[in-house]
Write a structure and sequence with these properties.
The structure is a single chain. This protein folds into two domains: 136 residues, Rossmann fold (3-Layer(aba) Sandwich), CATH 3.40.50.2300; 155 residues, Alpha-Beta Plaits (2-Layer Sandwich), CATH 3.30.70. By secondary structure, it is of the alpha/beta class. The protein is elongated. Helices cover 49% and strands 21% of the residues.
Length: 310
């Protein structure tokens, strides 16, 4: 089953415009009409149209200039352009294709031919959609830890620096937390690595459920250690968030066959604000400081939050 497409039709002849519009709507598509190339380009700038049908000869901006403008517009996806024209010499066809048209249709328009050429364009657009989806899936896999669905170290290496630079640019605070499941080796030794994996998954889920969606983000830093990044969060407020994380983990119960597993975690928190010396602020210094506080939490008995500003 083919997708419904939003089609932009640029045609200055009202009779031809209405006939073509009716054919397209009958085929199940939504149609927006323009009476000249300039108007069509303005509509295209306001809303993306994956398919454009344009007459060649129009006032203010002709079809060739419209094709060229669309091709240089930096649109969000590929645009399949069909040029409608009474010109059908080889030179005219070549000129239309050079201007950016994908196909052409001689006027007066034949309904079967229009639908056939439109379906050819739709196949190309659907292929592009499937390729974009596949590429996005590959991109997500490349930045995601396959077990816990948190981001991986590769993502952190790129995006932590961006978060820091953004915070410094706008003088906004940023907090960062390193956390580690207490006695995780004992979980693996007692219950086996499959149960250990389930514990890691459950722990990561608790982290993601407790932090702010689409603002904060988590990284599987290594083994049973996770990094939590809290943008727009000054250190004291970040510590309150971390304490909620600690409590949520300590209350978590992981049900397995004939057993209930409970865990705790230790947390090391740090952060900076507009008063922090810029020379102190870097991904390495932030992680190092959070790591120092994490190990302090472990030395002091685990299942606790230790921290301090950068």
């Amino acid at each position: 089953m083919k997708h419904q497409f939003n089609i932009l039709l640029a045609e200055d002849n009202p009779v031809s415009s209405k006939l073509t519009e009716n054919i397209l709507k009958k085929a199940g598509h939504e149609v927006t009409t323009a009476t000249n190339g300039r108007q069509a380009l303005e509509l295209f700038k306001e809303k993306f149209f994956p398919i454009v049908l344009t007459d060649w000869m129009m006032p203010e901006m002709d079809g060739l200039d419209l094709c060229k403008a669309i091709r240089t517009s930096g649109s969000e996806g590929y645009v399949f352009i069909i040029l409608l024209t009474a010109r059908d010499s080889k030179d005219d066809i070549v000129a239309g294709l050079k201007a950016g048209a994908d196909d052409y249709l001689s006027k007066p328009i034949s309904q079967p031919e229009l639908i056939a050429r439109l379906n050819s364009g739709i196949r190309i657009l659907e292929l592009e959609r499937s390729l974009k989806k596949a590429n996005e899936e590959i991109r997500v896999l490349s930045i995601t830890d396959s077990l816990t669905a948190c981001f991986n170290r590769g993502y952190m290496n790129e995006h932590l620096l961006k978060e820091i630079m953004r915070s410094k640019r706008y003088n906004h605070p940023l907090s960062v937390v390193l956390c580690d499941i207490d006695h995780f080796k004992q979980v693996n030794d007692t219950y086996g690595h499959q149960i250990g994996d389930r514990v890691l998954i459950a722990f990561a889920q608790i982290l993601r459920k407790t932090i702010r969606e689409k603002i904060d983000w988590t990284v599987r830093y290594g083994g049973e250690e996770f990094l939590v990044v809290l943008p727009e969060t000054e250190f004291n407020r970040g510590c309150l968030m971390v304490e909620r994380l600690r409590q949520a983990v300590s209350q978590m119960e992981i049900e397995e066959v004939n057993k209930t597993i409970k865990i705790t975690a230790s947390f090391g928190a740090t952060g900076f604000d507009s008063d922090t010396d810029d020379e102190k602020i870097s991904p390495d210094s932030i992680i190092k400081r959070a790591d120092e506080h994490l190990y302090k939490a472990k030395r002091e008995g685990r299942n606790r939050v230790c921290g301090g500003p950068l």
